[in-house]
Amino acid sequence: MERPRILTPAGASFTVAGGGYDLEMEALERLGAEIVECAPNEEAFIAAAPLADAVYAKGMKFTARMIEALSKAKVITCATVGVDYVDVPAATARGIAVTNCPDTFIEEVADHAMMLLLATHRRCIEQDRMVREGRWGEGRPQLLKIPRLMGSTLGFVAFGRVARLTAMRAKAFGLRMVAYDPFVDELTMSALGVVPASLDQVLSESDFVSMHAPDTADTRRMLTTKHFARMKKTAIFINTGRGPTVDEAALVAALQSGQIAGAGLDVFEVEPLPKDSPLIGMPHVILSPHNASASARFDEARKRRAGQEMALVLSGRWPMSCVNPTVLPGSGLRRWQPYAMERGPNS
């Protein structure tokens, strides 16, 4: 039997060229599979694609043209929550499963979302600077203008896994919670003490708006000028989902004009954040470099999960997490798992 061949770009973000696949191979070794690297560009991938039984997607965009060159691949595996760098419709058209890791490091993202909420609310960075710059007397007057956290309203835009874990954390702080997500049923929300609401209600009622939508064609620039205009002038915007879901220029304008009070952002429309971004100079904004999911277990957990998903599909079984409708070779079955708002996380 021919060894299954897994194609992956070299020198990608979470391994090193020429090696570093021991954790992925824990599940793949019994199949006799081999991971083969190609140069991280479209032409090199296309040249190697016909021999690939699977693709380990990382470090670059996977376009429709690249996916069309996969003549026998059964799966494209992403060791991330988001799959926005893979043309999922193109993979679906080819009958190729696209897998992700939607539940591997969501605890960390929920922690980060809660951290950004608390830090922006209590003006953590600004208070720190006051002490360092000898402006001790300015700290208390600033906080005397800030309402108590208990009893404030936290609104979720999308209520997937990360949002649900964030809600569990927020409940301990006495926050009232509302959420907009047309793909999540009322019982799921109410079990966590969250009230279903329209998008307009979430924006207009919330003291904190937390964005958790994935980057898809339907959610790109989901929040624009008109949405920020609906928010309270005292509101704080949090985003640990995906940067392109927000019109960043509209967010900047809302912050500059005082339409909203502040923001805590882990994701941006363009990453890394350009050095001339107005967000960098804003004292009422806390930024982090798209690292909400990171922790000591981050790399090990997602590498093992990636190997497990590829091994499952290559052995003719369903993966644990499939983001597209697909026909697995030899199964004769079709299974629908929507990649909709609830599938999101860094979302």
Question: Overview of this structure, please?
Answer:
- With 347 residues, the protein is an alpha/beta fold.
- The protein has two domains: 5-104 and 295-343, Rossmann fold; 106-287, Rossmann fold (3-Layer(aba) Sandwich).
- Helix content is 32%, strand content 15%.
- It is built from 13 helices and 14 strands.
- The protein has helices at 22-28, 42-48, 64-68, 88-93, 106-121, 124-132, 139-143, 161-171, 186-190, 199-205, 225-230, 248-257, 298-314, and strands at residues 5-9, 34-38, 54-57, 75-78, 97-99, 153-157, 176-180, 194-196, 208-211, 236-239, 262-265, 285-287, 326-327, 334-335.
- The chain has a seven-stranded parallel sheet, sandwiched between helices.
- The longest helix has 17 residues, at 298-314.
